[in-house]
Design a protein that fits this description.
heterodimer, A: alpha+beta, Alpha-Beta Plaits, 6-stranded antiparallel beta sheet, 3-stranded antiparallel beta sheet, extended, B: mainly alpha, 4 helices
Chain lengths: ~240, ~120
């Protein structure tokens, strides 16, 4: 009987040891293999997010303050202001501000060689828009068509279109608004040194980038948004 | 027979439930200790079957082997020689030897049992 208990005790210990060993082998401790540079990058990303969120909170606080201040007397005006701001944000109305104007013209060589004039391809335009969109807070218009987050640049029946409207043959203008003159300067310098100029040149076009101006006006979108998901609340509801 | 198995199950579940982790650098020692424990256990079973089992030899052998194996591995790490391989080799060989002896003893017992039962039925 004593022997049985002895074996039980020993087997208990053996079982425990095997289980612990199994645990150790199966779940190795997760190691943090990031070096200080990767951690710094991550920290920078989080900081940026933090600052963006703060900006947003501040803007919302301001709106709230406006509502509170104008309670009763001009609540309607505050609401209209908000709607106006939203329209502007969505690119539905004209906007004026500091920016640059770019002329897209056929290159001198293609004119000299008599190469037939063709449209700017949708791929090239998309590339350009993507390149410029590295800068935040910009508004753009291509040949009078406002480019918003919902704009599509594509080929429809052989024609390059923006928002479904055909882009005319060069020369035409691209206007870009940025928040202030400083950003316009930055954008101007960026475009001057950008490889997108070479891409346009390969397609026989030249981008003539104008100096930053304090007042550039761009059009709002002509077509209305299709609202598929939001429904109007019943009156008095 | 059932009590030792119950002990084993209890030990395994205790180990899993406690969720204990050994740091990676000590994993070697534990694996060698497990091997030493298994070796002693099989040795004990063999001795039991051969009727030469002794409590004191079994218990002291169990803990002494574990400590010695872990100590050898520890010494090996500090000397820069993989001494734990020697322990693995020694315990491994003994483990198989013990298993072979156990198998033979059980076979002999089984054939004896069969002989007895066949003579019983033929009578």
């Amino acid at each position: 009987m004593k022997r049985k208990w002895m074996f039980t005790f020993i087997l208990l210990i053996v079982g425990f040891m095997v289980a612990v060993q199994y645990n150790t082998v199966q779940q190795p401790e997760e190691r943090d293999t990031r070096d200080s540079w990767a951690i710094r990058n991550e920290l920078a990303k989080e900081r940026k997010l933090h600052s963006e969120l703060l900006t947003e909170v501040r803007a919302l606080d301001q709106t709230l303050g406006k509502y509170n201040a104008s309670e009763g007397a001009s609540a309607g005006k505050a609401l209209a202001d908000t709607v106006h701001g939203l329209y502007q944000q969505a690119g539905m109305i004209d906007k004026t501000g500091p920016g640059i104007v770019i002329d897209v013209v056929p290159s001198e060589e293609s004119v000299a060689f008599g190469t037939p004039l063709h449209e700017v391809s949708p791929e090239l335009l998309t590339r350009f828009v993507n390149d410029v969109n590295r800068f935040k807070g910009i508004d753009m218009e291509i040949d009078g068509k406002r480019v918003t987050a919902l704009s599509a640049i594509r080929d429809i029946n052989g024609e390059t279109t923006v928002n479904g409207l055909p882009v005319s043959l060069p020369p035409f203008q691209i206007k870009i608004l940025s928040g202030d003159m400083e950003s316009s300067e930055k954008l101007y310098n960026f475009l001057q040194s950008s490889s997108i100029l070479d891409d346009f040149y390969l397609d026989d076009f030249v981008l003539e980038i104008g100096q930053p101006q304090s007042e550039v006006t761009i059009n709002g979108r002509i077509d209305k948004f299709e609202n598929r998901f939001l429904k109007e609340l019943p009156k008095g509801g | 027979m059932w009590l030792p198995i119950l002990g084993l199950i209890l030990g395994v579940s205790l180990g899993f439930l406690s969720d204990i982790h050994i740091p990676q650098e000590y994993g070697n020692y534990l694996s060698i200790a497990v091997l030493a424990a298994l070796d002693t256990l099989l040795g004990g079973i063999r001795a039991h079957l051969q009727r030469v089992y002794d409590d004191q030899v079994f218990i002291t052998g169990f803990f002494f082997n574990i400590l010695l194996a872990a100590g050898l591995a520890f010494l090996g790490v500090h000397l820069g020689v993989d001494l734990y391989l020697a322990a693995i080799f020694a315990f491994g060989v003994r483990l198989f030897q013990n298993l072979a002896v156990i198998r033979r003893v059980l076979l002999t017992k089984w054939s004896e049992y069969r002989k007895v039962s066949t003579t019983n039925t033929s009578k």
